[in-house]
Amino acid sequence: MAEELKELWKKLTFTEDEGEDIELGSNSTRAAKEIGKNCVVMKILTQRTIILEALRKNLKMLWKPNKGVQISKIEEDLFLVEFGDGRDKKKVMEMCPWSYEKQLILMQEFEGEMVPKEIKLQWVPFWVQMYNLPLKSMTREARYEIGSKLGKVLEVDVAEKGVQWGKFLRVRIRIDVTRKLIRGKKVSIEGGESRWIFFKYERLPNFCYWCGMLDHGEKDCLEKKGDEPGRGEQMQYRAWMRSEPGRRPGRD
């Protein structure tokens, strides 16, 4: 409907009254911009209909804000979250990703310049664990170099000395959820033989075992091969890609 109206407006001939500009000054936006400092835009990555009251109740229990939180629907699948305190907002954002009914929640900072239907949410931070690397690669530099191939590196879990021993590397990366999850990468070190390293994602919610997308499960996948016996063996993605948040590798 919005796109149809947009095309219709392009063809309209405005009357003199309709063509007159209305200029809004800073007084008309001040209150929204001030409150917006404690707001985020949110989307649930699901194809199901979201019941607003159920969403409000669930997230209040999940986040336990000190000074309350208000959730308003601003588009069919887009919500505005208003925290009563900036510290609550900071805590929630730092603990991303979150999930609702096992579906990923997308959240980003309030953007007051944009019309709701123009806002696109597609990035979520995940802690990613990287396995099957030799000990000489347990460095800060290796974490950044590998992590940058998955998305924007936000943080690396490494000691001040630049080396962190353990079973895996751990990197916080901003992932593009419009793309398939990356299961691993081939890596060669100092010109040596290429080896396969595999990734696990902390707090990974539901995702499709057929295609690796986060916005649906295997039952709704268009790439699904059928329901005959043995078809499940053809799934290219598995539950092993999930990992629970844990202690930093190599630390008690």
UniProtKB/TrEMBL annotation:
Every Zinc knuckle CX2CX4HX4C domain range: 175-222
Pfam families, sorted: DUF4283, zf-CCHC_4
Domain DUF4283: 37-116
Annotated region (Disordered), positions in chain: 225-252
InterPro entries: At4g02000-like, DUF4283, Zn_knuckle_CX2CX4HX4C
Coiled-coil blocks: none
Source organism superkingdom: Eukaryota
Name this polypeptide is given: CCHC-type domain-containing protein
